[in-house]
Design a protein that fits this description.
Elements (H helix, E strand, L loop, with lengths): L3 H19 L5 H14 L4 E11 L2 E13 L3 E6 L6 H14 L3 E6 L9 E5 L6
Helix pairs in contact: 1-2
Length: 129
């Protein structure tokens, strides 16, 4: 199993390559589709638009939400194509990480001038190995 930090690096490498090729301005679904394909070519398991249930007050809501990508069954990737990322986007990703009991998520905004400016790493009880 690839360490989570190495997995994050692979995803970011592919996201940067995609951004260099396409630039900003496309729909989120395009970036999501291309990123999923590039990660699969690297022999990673990728689930797209994964429906997630939530339990609140003893009641299960299924599906409660969808995540853009789940890579290797443990790293959540949320794709955005917005002018600027906000705290709300990071909170949204953290909210996804909690019921999935996942330690790390990546928030990728492909609308920035450079991909480097569109990357946010969100952690949920992460303890480096």
């Amino acid at each position: 199993m690839i360490p989570i930090d190495e997995l994050s690096s692979i995803i970011l490498e592919e996201a940067i390559a995609i951004h260099r090729e396409f630039g900003p301005g496309l729909f989120e679904s395009v970036y999501e589709s291309v990123l999923a394909g590039r990660l699969r070519r690297r022999d990673l398991k990728v689930d797209r638009q994964l429906q997630v249930k939530a339990v609140f007050d003893g009641v299960t809501y299924d599906p409660a939400f969808k995540i853009d990508l789940l890579v290797d069954d443990r790293l959540v990737v949320e794709i955005k194509a917005v002018e600027k990322l906000s705290q709300t986007h990071a909170k949204q990703l953290l909210t996804y990480l909690r019921p999935l009991k996942q330690p790390v998520g990546l928030l990728l905004n492909f609308s920035e001038a450079t991909m480097k400016d569109g990357i946010r790493r969100v952690v949920n009880d992460y303890k480096p190995q």
